[in-house]
């Protein structure tokens, strides 16, 4: 048994202080692991989204070259990097006389993209 010397402060930690310190470190570790896991999940679907964006941009270029009427001959499914991407295009006329084309692209594994472009009346050959 230790005796306290005249006015000397206690040195060391009590068992409760040690338990609280371990609890705080454990909570911080769990929070870090959850954030890392969420980042991993978000990065995991990036390839599908990029392929869908690339397919949508390609379709936008095709629409600008062929025009809206030429879009009927374009395929609904294209293959990029060995993965099928489904494309759908909806169009509507604006009050300014432009054609608004909304291109939806969905990769085979689920990642997708939406692209909106405006086409002038004279676009396409």
Arithmetic mean pLDDT: 85
Biggest sheet character: 4 strands, antiparallel
Contiguous uncertain segments of 5+ residues: none
Helix run count: 2
Protein name: Prepilin-type N-terminal cleavage/methylation domain-containing protein
Keywords: Membrane, Transmembrane, Transmembrane helix
Transmembrane segments: 12-33
Pfam families: N_methyl
In words, what does this structure look like?
This protein has a 4-stranded antiparallel β-sheet with strand order 1-2-3-4, with helices on one face. The mean pLDDT is 85. The protein has a domain at 46-119. Helices cover 44% and strands 26% of the residues. It has 2 helices and 4 strands. A hairpin with a 5-residue loop joins β2 (83-93) and β3 (99-107). The chain has helices spanning 15-44, 46-70, and strands at residues 77-80, 83-93, 99-107, 112-119. It is elongated and about 90 Å long. The chain has 125 residues and is an alpha+beta fold. InterPro entries: N_methyl_site. The chain crosses the membrane at residues 12-33. Keywords: Membrane, Transmembrane, Transmembrane helix. This is Prepilin-type N-terminal cleavage/methylation domain-containing protein.
């Amino acid at each position: 048994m230790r005796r306290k010397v005249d006015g000397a402060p206690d040195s060391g930690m009590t068992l409760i202080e040690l338990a609280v310190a371990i609890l705080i470190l454990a909570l911080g570790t769990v929070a870090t692991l959850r954030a890392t896991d969420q980042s991993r999940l978000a990065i995991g679907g990036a390839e599908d989204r990029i392929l869908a964006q690339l397919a949508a941009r390609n379709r936008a270029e095709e629409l600008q070259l062929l025009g809206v009427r030429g879009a009927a001959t374009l395929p609904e499914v294209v293959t990029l990097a060995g993965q099928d991407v489904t494309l759908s295009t909806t169009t509507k006329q604006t009050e300014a006389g432009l054609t608004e084309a909304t291109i939806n692209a969905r990769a085979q594994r689920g990642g997708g993209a939406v692209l909106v472009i405006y086409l002038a009346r004279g676009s396409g050959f």
